[in-house]
Amino acid sequence: MVTALAVFLPLLGAFLTAWLTHRNERLSLLITRLFLLAGLAAILVIAARLGAVTDGGLENTMILRTGVMTPPLSIDLKVTGWSALAAVVVYVGALLGVGRFSGRIPGTQPLLLTLVTTSLGLMFATDFFNSFVFIEIGSIITIGLTAAGRCRRRWEVALKTAMISGLVTILYLLAVVIVYRTTGELRLTAISTMTGFPAILVSGLLLTVIMTEIKAFPLSGWGLDFYQGVDKNFAAVYSSTWSLAVLLWSARMLTVLPLPDPGVLARIGAGGLVLGQLAGLRQRDPGRMMGYSTSAYASILLILAGTVHGADYLSLTLLFFTFASLSKTTVFLMADPEEEDDPWKKVSGYVLLLPLLCITGIPPFPVFWAKIRMLTVLADISPLLMGAVILGLFFESVYIYRLWSSRTGPWQKKRKYFDAAFMGAALLAAGTVWTAAGAEQGLSLSGELFRAGFVRDLFLAIFAGGTLLSLPGAFRGGPGEKSPAVWMLVSGVALTLLPLSGNGLTFYVLWEISAFAAVIGVSKGARPSEGTFWFAVFAGAAGYLLLASLVLSDGAVSSPGIPMLLVAAAALLKMGQGGAHLWNVRAYSTAPSTMAAFLSGTSSKAAVFLLVFSASAAAILPLGTSLAWIGALTALGMAAMASLESDYKKVLAYASVSQLGYVIMGIGLTSVLGWTAAIYHTFNHFLFKSILFLGAAGVIARTGTSDYDSLGGLVKRMPLTFTFTLISVIAFAGVPPLSGFGSKWLLYNALVEQGMLPLALVAMFASVVAFLYAFRLLYAVFLGQLAPRHYEVKEAPLAVLAPQGVFTAVLMALSFRPTLLLDRLVPAVASIAGLGGEIPVIEGTALSTSLGYWDAWSVGMMVMGVFGFAFVFYWISGRRPIHVGQLDIGFAGELPPSPEEVHYAGDFFRPFRRALAFLPEIHASKVFGGIVKTADLAGDVFRSLFTGDARTYLLHSLIILTVMILWMKGGTP
Amino acid sequence: MYCNKIPDKPVDNEKIWKKLDDLARANSLWITAYGTGCGAIELRPLHTSRFDMERFGIAMRPTPRQSDVLIISGYLSVKTLKRVIRVYEQIQDPKYILALGSCTIDGGMYFDSYNTINILDRYIPVDVYVNGCMPRPEAVIDGFILLMKKIKEGKAVGWKRYKENLEYYRKNQREIIRNWDLPDYNW
Amino acid sequence: MNVFYWTVAGTASGLIIVGLWGVLTRKNILRIGLAFTIADTGVNLLLVWSGYLPGRTTPILNGDVPAAEAVSAVVDPLPQALVLTSIVIGVAVAALFVVVAVLASRRLGTADIRRMKELKW
Amino acid sequence: MIRTLFVLLVLLVLAAAATSVIPHLKMRTELDGAGLEYARRGLEDTGSINLVTAVIVAYRGLDTLGEVVVLFSAATSVMLILSLFPLGRGPTDPSFIVAHTARVLPAPIMLLAVYFTTHSHLSPGGGFPGGTIMASAFLLVMLGSSSTPAGSKILPALEALSGTTFGLLGLWGTMTLGQFLNNRVIGIGNPGYLVSAGIIPLVSLAIGVKVASEFSGIFAAFRKSGGNR
Amino acid sequence: MTRLLVSVILTSLGALVYGLLLGGVSRVITASIHGRIGPRLTQNFIDLWKLFRKESSIHHGTMFWMAPMFRLTGGIGVLLLVPIIAGNSVLTNMSFSGDLLLVLYFMFFGCLGMALGAGDSGHPYAVVAVSRGLLQMSAYELSFSAAVLVLALGLGTFSIENIVSAQQGGILNWNVFRFPFATAAALITFLPMNMTYPFNIVLAPQEIPIGPPTEYSSRFLSFMFSGRAIFGVAKLILFVNLFFGGAGSWSSLLIKTFLLYMYPLFVSPVFPRFRTEQSVRFLWFVPTSLVAVDLLRVIL
Q: Are A957 and A208 a contacting pair, CB within 8 Å?
């Protein structure tokens, strides 16, 4: 009874509202809501009875018999726990959308209610012809509501939809004829008993129908047009009701198709995923992007159907499609259909983020759990297939990020746009919590992960300390920036938990949370879109690589080398090595400065942590030399780039990547000395890069610019900031007695010990080139002439100054007593299995290897002594000099024109540029631009399939049908 | 942007080293390489092996900060005077002025020009005049030797005079330089 | 009888192919709708055809056909039921298609489907 | 031209590929499958002499409900679209013949329709043909005048009523026999009589009224959309 | 400790005197090459004293103030880190606190301080010169450190004392003969290191008077001169230690350093000045390819 009510209540409501709708609109809307609520209650009761949320509950069944007798004579509606949960989503989607859509367009309520009944009917249908009836109702309502919706291109969309449904009708009925004639009945399960050519024909017909209906590439053309042109609020309803129902019905259909080889489905799906999403890369229209995303999910369905079976299949499809649908509904609810060109114009990306991240399947959002399990299965079947799927998913995330990052509008205040959307977001959040709580765990990374010990604690200290100290300054954004504090905190907490995570999956989840919280933090900057987009793309890529490695190392098929390779690639991307610095530069320079400090100082260390801890030394050994070379060349190239750059934050970004190159080099050496150098340098880099970026934050907060040409002379206004920056610059330049020299010393010892002299040379050259940008940074910002417009500039705010002070104190302590750290670090590194080479000896304050020795304490004392002596001697030896004005310079007897003209900061190293002129200009932006262009071109080839002519889409369907029939016919004897 | 502090009046309080100091100053005269007029061409031969001024410890410095001697090489126009004042004041004490040619003494052949300085000593304190139009390098070296002698005797005190009578010099300077825009003292 | 059977099947298939050909090549949207109806008719014919049994009567068990002999006397009732549904659906879809097509051609000023390509790529 | 040829090629290849199914679709000489069962026990199960009606209304009643919903959706959509986007072309005056026919014929047509509808379980016919015929009567009335008939006001009410009736009749089955749309909720009576076959006549009636009101609604919507004289 | 202190002070003073004297000698020799008489040998002392005793001086800010100290500290520091006479326990000074790598990197200390002071002076020429100087430094450090690393790898040590002791026992054991190409490269880089022609782009008085110290005067300048003199001596000793067998006694130290000091004198007076990018490219390619020969020898 409850089942019948759950299915048919909306229909009764539809009959009622059809009568009411033009008489009393408000009452009609109220009744619509009431019926939907009643239906929701009913379906919830059913779900509870079936125990749908418990283990195995998805397969529990409840049958609603209709007519007389039993199937095959009559028709059953079968509710499983699986479909009951989906039905809940259908109701929720309809409830969310009814106000935004039907409230706006009177007379649509009966159709909406009918659509709910139909969706449920389709999901529960067990009869072949009965499904057809439901499909037809759904199509008719879709056409009707599309035509009735508020959108300029409604006719085109409605017509295309109508033509598609016309073709589907014909193909489906042909299948009905064949099925009935060969099996004598019309139950869905009967189809699977078919054999021979009829089976092939029916499979072909149905597969074409399904691919068209679920909008799987290459039959997705009409779906793309649909999402682009349709009333976005109708799309909201459509996604959670009809679209979901068709997906789930298709999910069941695909299991009963009498295909000769179900693996074909996975191949079609994977191919469609890659090519279809490739075509979507260049997409700019937000509605169409959602169409492409739908097409991605359609492909995922095909892949699942070809590879996963049983209870897994049920839970995976459910997780994927319900949450994707709900997310899409939420996204569409935020749209303003009155805005024809960009319905999301007024929506800030911040609001869109939750549903969009949900769609891309970033952990801990529910789709992620489904994704990782799907990939696990695929990894066992074919790593190649898995790779293709990951590539396709990555493409999807790229345009989704673009959609998100291009939204820069202010927070939309109008309540009417957001009540439903917020509810959708809340539901998503709840779903996230719920699925995360029940998520399956137990995957692990290869190697000896998460050894407790000093190294782990060191990273813990870096993550926690970095977060805490970057945070105070983040509460107030710089000029034009919003405060990234919340997201920095989220990211930082996730980072801090990283070393404590118990297994690979947790690690990955925390990694992604940290990355994407950081992405959001970056988006708070003054010019966010570009940097945010690239950061998101690279973080996404790194995440997918890590995911692939995680899944592969868990699987049985592949060799252990490949996961390591992927981990290394992920870490390199994360650290911007080997040309991936594109994102660092763009993100750091557009992010709020404190966020950049956090990213560069603290967050980038996660990649080092990943490398150090996931790589058993044996696994990294084959990659070692290549890693070291990548690190060395990156260190050199980025140092050169930093020298030629004239934006404060970009320079720091290049410098950050360059410095991390040394870390990679050290790790690549796989010796005790190398790893000690790498970890020691990591800690150093954490200190000085945090100081530098926080200093930059202070400067930018006070002056409002990060351009070298408009800064200068700030030492007179911000002496403390200058002092801290000076110390950290001396440190990273590796000049004794400050701590940067320590890491260099260890590194060269390691390099020479391994006989890698060319590498040592490149490293040496890089560290000399580092002087160029180090000095330029100090000079252009703090020294030279103070521009008159900065006369009133005050010292940086305490919130960034105090942390700098703390960092500097640690840095100084470490400079004079590096053994404070090395005492513990060296034994800890030495105890890591598989690391070769000699172990440096620590005696007192001195450190020695068979090659050389270094006593930081005595060097420090000597420098302090000589310096102090010189100072005192100068002080007592004569009169005090007179402090003169900034323009009191020997200027050939002239008065200098103005401070700005005398300040020589732009194109500071022009001779360097000239000297480098013999090199071809290889900018990472050009390389990546080339990659993007190639992908675009390739995508354009596939995009050109979608000519916009509905007849072409029909022809595609027919061609696919023909090809499939011929293919399967050829495939079976 | 400019330091407007008027320099303190010089005091002789370091008697102990004075002899040694004067000796060193006399034997290490660094010239500001600054040609103010036609006579600058006569200075170049001083570098050559024929005249070789380095044997007296005389060297050219490209910046007033590091030099001791300013050579006024010929007539000064009003325009140049302004620059000379600035360069001279930027030289650190003790500093000396060697004026070359008749023009610096009484205006020479340009005595009636509307735009030249006739009596240089009214504007900046000259320690040694070398007459001639132009004086030959030998004469210049002779002037240097005279200057060295004066320094050793402690008589080359133009810089002290300038500081003590700054108001006087400034008045004269301001009289002739109409668009006066220099700071109170050019540090 | 076999000839009749296959003739019907052939006609039906022909209708479908002609209909599809019309759908794929005509430019006027109303003609496309008509072509759909043609193909639909073909499919319906095929549906009825599939329930055909030679020499049998309608499945109404009145005096002519005793209930006991029904099994050997009547044709298959199911396709007939299905085709009824199918026809009704066809009518409904056709009605909607016509409305949309007419309104589209009125609003867009053309009935040429090649002009309705604003949404693409 | 190339396009046409290509389309033709695709269709022919498809057809050629599909011909392999011919051996599997040979003419049947005996009933089998579900058809056999219907013929064997249809009368017994449903009490309907007309086996097609038994299949439509009783065995596969859900399909029929769906069918009704299809019509309902299409009608609602058409009405909705036409009300939003009026065609803006008014009706012409009916010709003399039409006007007079419209006065005479509707009554006998209605009679036929009612017979069709109520005797669905006894003879060829049923809710759909009956309803369509009823709608044709309405159409005739409408064509006979140049305005929308006054009766069209009650069409939505009729539609709602009949639709709800259909639904409730179905739920009745669920409540009593646990089977939606079971026609035996009130006993199947004596096959061959008007009052027999359970609720089949009632359902047919509901279907008839529903279909009639929907079609009429579509006609009325067209007329309204054009604007009354 | 006291001995160390005394040694440190004496070494520094000695190096100052020696450096100034060498400067004087070089001026005299240059003058001779020009056909002039040239200044007195003690001219540099006179100049230094004069500068130190100037009556007034100006400064531009804290970094400007501190730069000469940086310079001095850099010079003295390098001097103290290099063992002056092998086997002499006193004159090894502070060399126990770091090896060759430390010396290499400590050489930047003074340069960095100087550059900062120049930057703080606000004079554009000073900064242009710093830009040139840093560029040139980045270029010559490449080949110099390459040469040094070849030595370190070839001899298996970074310790200067060990490098010196490895060269004992005959002139053919000197690194100049064991690693001739590396030594040649290092000797080429010795020219830009001492800012002599043709690499005199930093102090180019005719272009950018006179580079970083443009604004320095009086005592600041005297500190700078002292620092430069000491640093020059330190570099000489370092070169002698690295390539010319080190110094076993005072006499050999003086002879070797003197000869090494003379070598630029015979190059610089006859060359014009490179442009910055020419200099940089020359230093990138020519000495580095020389080192590469020895590098290949060592590796293979």
A: yes
Chains C and E contact (Cβ–Cβ under 8 Å for 3 or more pairs): no
Q: Is the dihedral of CA B16, B20, B21, B23 positive or negative?
A: positive
ipTM greater than cut 0.90:
no
Three-state DSSP class for residue E236: helix
CB-nearest partner of B187 from E58, E213, E218: E58
Q: Per the structure block, which two tokens stand in for E260?
A: 């090494």
Asked, for residue C60, whether it belongs to a domain, the answer is yes
Chain B residues near residue A894 by CB distance under 8 angstroms: 83, 86
Domain spans of chain A? 180-194+203-440+926-973, 454-534+549-556+574-871
Instruction: Kindly list the distances between the CA atom of residue E214 and the CA atoms of A585, A827, E114, in Å, as whole numbers in the listed order.
Output: 36, 51, 11
A273: left (phi over 0), alpha (psi -120 to 50) or beta: alpha
Minimal C-alpha gap between A242 and chain D (Å): 14
User: Cβ contacts (< 8 Å) between A773 and chain E: which residues?
Assistant: none
Give residues with Cβ within 8 angstroms of B181, minimum separation 6: A895
B4 within a domain of the structure (yes/no): no
DSSP labels for A477-524? --TT----HHHHHHHHHHHHHGGG-SSHHHHHHHHHHHHHHHHHHHTT
Q: Residue B160 maps to which CATH number?
A: 3.40.50.12280
CA atoms lying within 13 Å on the CB side of residue C44: 18
Contact A471, A844 (CB under 8 A): no
- Measured in angstroms, the CA of E289 and the nearest CA of chain A are apart by 12
Query: Which residue has 């390691």 as its token pair?
Result: A750
Count of domains forming chain C? 1
CA angle at residue B82 from B79 to B88, to 5 degrees? 140
Domain extent, residue B133, equals 18-176
Q: Using an 8 Å Cβ cutoff, are E256 and E238 in contact?
A: no
Residue C120 in domain: no
pLDDT of residue D69 exceeding 80: yes
- For chain B, 187 residues long, give each residue's pLDDT as a single digit of tens: 888 888 888 777 667 788 888 899 999 999 987 888 888 888 888 888 888 888 898 988 888 888 999 998 888 888 888 889 999 999 988 899 999 888 888 888 888 888 888 888 889 999 999 988 888 889 999 999 999 999 998 888 888 899 889 889 999 998 888 888 888 888 8
Could you tell me if residue B185 is inside a domain?
Answer: no
Rounded distance, CA A194 to CA A259, Å?
9
C71 domain residue, yes or no: yes
CA distances for A379 relative to A146, A365, A565, C22, angstroms? 41, 22, 16, 46
H/E stretch holding D198: none
CB contact under 8 A, A870 and E134: no
Does a structural domain hold residue C42?
Answer: yes
How many separate domains does chain B show? 1
